[in-house]
Design brief:
single chain; alpha+beta; Aspartate Aminotransferase, domain 1; 2 domains; two-stranded antiparallel ribbon; L-allo-threonine aldolase; pyridoxal phosphate; lyase; L-allo-threonine aldolase activity
Length: 159
């Protein structure tokens, strides 16, 4: 983290995305910067009472979930490699570095059919747009889930 942030004065990180907290972000910077941010937050009505209930999942996200982000990234690469093997999918697994997998396929595919098949198999996704789609791995997605997803994608996209 130090290497990534060495050229900036402040940094903000969301805890509710890949770290599985229901809400929250952290802000880091100089003491003066944080004092100014606190004042501006209060001026804009951003104060909270009894915030410990919200802070607890954030602390858990930082202490427990951050260590497993690499697993999400490995699972995304596994998903990308599986999708790239499908003859109807355009994807270079080397382009996948985090838990987001973007890929392209034949734009003539019936999006409603794809979404229904994914939902029936227990997967949620946003509908494809012009033959492009994004899938996301997270702490609740394992290799068995990915294998099942790849079977659905093969059946709907390629068969």
């Amino acid at each position: 983290m130090r290497e990534v942030t060495r050229h900036v004065d402040s940094v903000m990180a969301c805890l509710s995305k890949g770290l599985a907290a229901p809400i929250g972000s952290i802000l880091a910077g100089s003491a003066d910067f944080i004092d100014q941010a606190r004042r501006k937050r209060k001026l804009l009505g951003g104060g909270m009472r009894q915030a410990g209930v919200i802070a607890a999942p954030g602390i858990l996200a930082l202490t427990e979930m951050a260590a497993r982000l690499d697993e999400d990234h490995r699972n995304a690469r596994y998903l990308a490699e599986g999708l790239a093997k499908l003859p109807c999918v355009d994807l270079n697994p080397a382009d996948v570095h985090i838990n987001l997998v973007w890929f392209r396929f034949n734009a003539d595919i019936d999006a409603a059919e794809l979404m229904a098949a994914l939902k029936q198999a227990g997967f949620l996704a946003n509908p494809p747009h012009q033959g492009a789609m994004r899938l996301v791995t997270h702490w609740q997605v394992g290799r068995a889930d990915i294998d099942r997803l790849l079977e659905v994608m093969q059946r709907v996209l390629c068969d």
